[in-house]
Amino acid sequence: MRLTSPGANPPGDVDRYLLPHEQEVITVRLHPAVLLPWAAAAAGGLLVAIIIGALPHADQFEQLLVRLLAAFLFLQFLLAMGRWAVRYFVVTSQRMLVISGLFHRRTEMWPLIDVRGITLERSAYSRIGGYGSLVIGGRTFIDYIPYPEQIYLEICRLIYPDRDSSDD
């Protein structure tokens, strides 16, 4: 089973983080809802710039400041999109990895053998949006995970394999 966000192909460099004996089970990008605060800030900055520009008595310096702020917020949104595009949650037969970093690559890892319990948290907003959070050892391991129930069940299957399936 390999889940991948719709329209997304996992990067080729995910394989460089896998051990020779590991098999990639799940690879997903974070849910696009993670971009909503950045998009709202950029849209708000653009709206304020349009309103200030339309005022008849607006000072040129004020207009310039507001436009620079709107441009800054839009660049922050573009950077957030870039970070989102290169951040992947990967579950292998042995570990869970979060690979991230637009300019500086970072890899977080949690061995499946060390996972004693895993919790799936979903608020009302996340249920509507279709994402959730995985909590391991009392701390949030990853937020904005898409397909949360499917991924949760697959991780549980890896942690607690079916003992009867080896009899086939």
The best one-word shape is elongated
User: Unreliable segments (pLDDT under 50, ≥5 consecutive)?
Assistant: 4-8
The H/E string reads: EHHEEEEHEEH
Give the total of domains: 2
Q: Any idea what the radius of gyration is?
A: 21 Å
How many DSSP-defined strands? 7
Task: Please give the alpha-carbon distance between the first and last residues.
Answer: 20 Å
What kind of sheet is the major sheet? 4 strands, antiparallel
Task: Determine the structural class based on helices, strands and strand pairing.
Answer: alpha+beta
Strand order of the largest sheet: 1-2-3-4
Strand content: 15-25%
Number of H/I helices: 4
Give the overall pLDDT as a whole number: 85
Helix content: 25-40%
Descriptive account of the structure:
This protein has 168 residues and is of the alpha+beta class. The chain folds into 2 domains: 12-30 and 88-161; 36-81. It has helices at 36-54, 60-85, 124-129, 148-159, and strands at residues 24-29, 88-92, 95-100, 106-111, 118-121, 131-136, 139-146. A hairpin with a 2-residue loop joins strand 2 (88-92) and strand 3. Helix 1 (36-54) packs antiparallel against helix 2 (60-85). The longest helix is centred in the middle third of the chain and has 26 residues, at 60-85. The two termini are 20 Å apart. Mean pLDDT is 85; it is low at 4-8.
